[in-house]
Amino acid sequence: MSDLIAQLEELSAEAAAALATTQTTAESEAWYHEYLGRKGRMTAVLRGLGQLSPEQRPQVGKRANEIKQVLEQALAEHQEQIAADEMARVLAAEGIDVTMPGRRPQVGKLHPTNQAMRDIVHIFNQMGFQVFDSPEVETDDMNFGLLNFPLDHPAREMQDTFFTTTPDVILRTHTSPGQIHAMRKYAPEPIRVVLPGKCYRNEDVTARSEMMFYQVEGLAIGHNITFSDLKGTLLNFANQMYGEGRKIRFRKSYFPFTEPSVEVDVDCILCGGAGCRICKYTGWLEILGAGMVHPVVLRNGGYDPAIYSGFAFGMGIERQAMLKRGVDDIRLFYSNDVRFLERV
Ligand code: DAH
Asked: Is 344 in the pocket of ligand 1 (CB under 6 A)?
């Protein structure tokens, strides 16, 4: 019996030494077959078990199992090492340094125009205005005529409007034609809508004007809607958009589709009214145009001006973003300079 055990110990020592010399997975598999496999040397030694007495057999068998387990464990560890070495070789050959810090993923964010548009729409949503979609391509009548533009109004002249090859079909120069679409859809129901979207003007591109830009139009129509409703609505907007406690002022103005018409200013968000470069030392910043919907426009939309009244307003979205973020050139919005887009 001690003879068999001595043979096993010797075989175990030889096997352990042999395992250490294997360098590939295939070699280590071959090692397994040679020492531990069904036709391997361990099995061969254990054939001798038959000659032992029934009392001796379990002792030798037990030791054989222990040796087998230790060798199997050693094989598993050795194979892991082989795999790790192989990976390191591949990485080294390909010049990959796994300890190098990773590249930061570029995280995008909303374009400043979209951000401002969402802010504006959100504020009016809270006051019960719903978004109404209206087309960017309009008829001349929708864009001008039905909004009470006199035939000889300068905005109709060639330099302001992009025409199409289809007579009378143009790119809208403002979001106001959406007022007609909304009224015609809902008349004679009361409405409160905001209409955000792109507008086009055939103008020279400068720091102050782009040929494509965004506006948000607002329209409220119902019974007894007054100029105070317009004031309250716009004051609430200014306070939410530009900060609590902001003051607004109304200056008389002219738009064909509103009567009376006003332009609305907010006290300068930079100097608070003292006068600075941004407000050109006036203390005020113009933010939008507004007024009471002209009776002719109400009628064109399907509302009887004897029964209904309403207010409207329109603002440039980039302008709001520029004032809020201190940007002084509208061209930056659409020149795709990532440095600007990241900073703003
Ligand atoms: N449509 C005008 C523009 O583009 C802005 C405007 C002024 C819209 C007064 C209105 C308004 O609804 O009442 O300059």
From this structure: no
